[in-house]
Design brief:
Helices cover 28% and strands 21% of the residues. The chain is an alpha/beta fold. α1 packs antiparallel against α2 (75-81). Bound molecules: guanosine-5'-diphosphate.
């Protein structure tokens, strides 16, 4: 696929870590689900077997991805994802309903960095990320996080263009919206829409919970409502 974002991730050296299912990570979801850490994958062969709908979370480092995951799933998810050695992995979490049935999987992708663009989406990003986004059969929605206070960045734009070209469903979420006043908010969101050529940007705050319900609605609409 000929689209390109590069140097997407900050080089974060991390010691190798055991890749294993860890059933001890059960986190009570504040709303409906329990979150179960599945595994951290560093290669396509390590992805969990495809099953329920999967939602991927993507964004530049520091965009507020851990905080949002924290708000959506409980703090262990964010903690697992930021554990040294796991920041360059795809961290998979299953969301279980009250009958312990798996409803969906969240895939937390490594944060990409601030460096300039080059030839491949995966240059500077682990090589297994692009195949994940391109061919993962159960991937139903990519939640792309952008900072509401930062103008549209080339790396974000190219990622979104890449997702469009790949035919992936995605939702762009403007994070940390609590930091903007009413007018700034309107202006910032308009600028992001224009810069990223989008009809819709979902404003969100992990701090105040603003927009979280709307994001869940989008995720539920993608995954189908629980019985
Ligand atoms: P990550 O690198 O994308 O996982 O980003 P983090 O979740 O670690 O957040 C980066 C910084 O932004 C931290 O200092 C957070 O406290 C801050 N932050 C994240 N979300 C919000 C938010 O909704 N509102 C505000 N005001 N700050 C936030």
């Amino acid at each position: 696929m000929a689209v390109s974002v590069s140097q997407l991730s900050k080089a974060r050296p991390g010691a190798p870590f055991p890749l294993s299912f860890d059933a001890s990570f059960f986190i009570t979801h504040p709303m409906r689900y329990t979150t179960q850490f599945l595994l951290s994958a560093l290669a396509a062969e390590q992805f969990p077997p495809p099953g329920v709908p999967e939602i991927a979370f993507l964004g530049r480092s520091n965009v507020g991805k851990s905080s949002l995951l924290n708000t959506l799933t409980g703090d262990k998810a964010a903690k697992v994802s930021s554990t040294p050695g796991r920041t360059r992995a795809i961290n998979f979490f299953a969301l279980l309903d009250q009958s312990q049935r798996r409803r969906m999987v969240f895939a937390d992708l490594p944060g990409y960095g601030y460096a300039k663009i080059s030839k491949s989406i995966s240059a500077g990003w682990p090589a297994f990320i692009e195949p994940y986004l391109a061919i993962r059969s159960t991937l139903k929605l990519c939640v792309c996080l952008v900072d509401s206070k930062v103008p549209a960045q080339e790396s974000d734009r190219q990622l979104i263009d890449w997702l469009r070209a790949a035919g992936r469903d995605f939702a762009v979420v403007a994070t940390k919206i609590d930091r903007l006043s009413g007018n700034e908010r309107t202006r910032g969101l308009l600028a992001l829409k224009k810069g990223l050529e989008l009809d819709e940007v979902l404003a969100i705050s992990a701090k105040t919970g603003y927009g979280v319900k709307e994001l869940w609605a989008r995720i539920d609409a993608t995954c189908g409502q629980p019985d």
